[in-house]
Design a protein that fits this description.
CATH class: Alpha Beta
Distance between the termini: 15 Å
Number of helices: 12
Bound molecules: 2-phosphoglycolic acid
Order of helices and strands: EEEHEHEHEHHEHHHEHHEHEH
Amino acid sequence: MEFSVFFNKKKEKFYFKIHLNSNQTIMRQKIVAGNWKMNLTKEEAQSLTSEIVGINNDELGTNQQDVKLILCPPFIHISTIKSLFKSTKNIYLGAQNIASQDKGAYTGEISAEMLSSYQVEYVIIGHSERRQYFEETNQEIAQKIDLTLSKNMLPIFCCGETLELRKKGNHIDFIKNQISESLFHLSNSDFEKVVIAYEPIWAIGTGKTASSQQAQEMHAEIRKHIASKFGQQIADQTSILYGGSCKPNNAKEIFACPDVDGGLIGGAALKSRDFVEIAKSF
Ligand code: PGA
């Protein structure tokens, strides 16, 4: 077991962050997931993956051995990049979305069953770009969560508020509602498989990161909300990632927050060195 002390900027408070090792039952997984979005050709995807695997194997020291890296390429690159993972133990394969239907006449869609047949392990669900450009609702996202779990894959559920909502002071209630409507129908044993990613929309791709205080405040609220439904033990085990302009130069401060368990990374996940440096920031 490892204890670390966290001081806020004004040195007013401190927290103990507890990392439990894999022999113990309660464990919060540290995760850095790369969301490649609609970027990279086949050759670029191959190069990026090989570089990440190489740097990961050479440089992630004993301290970071327990950090999971999840690569989430566009669907079309899934089988190509999986073959490059070789025997690397801490790198996992993720997808960026799934269809909300099981199978059938839905031209252009990709089902949970198809992804699972390619050994996909994680699926990002409810990313704000899907909500905004493809009008995904909390209800549709709930269906996608169920389909993902039904094929033994693990959802990375995204939530996040607009700047307008934050300015009005409604951001905490908004996030709680996104979580309740898409996840609170799950059984305890299904909920335990979900990773949460808090991604304030105003910070995604804008270069504006939430401050560590803003991230910690929201992550603590999310954990409290989970505890109110699924109990404190499950809440304590849930990995809650921060996303939104997370880079090597700000990851350390954000990951030091007691309720932040890693990051969902967009732009910086397209640069092998930056992505691994973020994973080294715990
Ligand atoms: P960003 O994207 O790191 O480029 O802000 C994060 C995300 O959309 O998941």
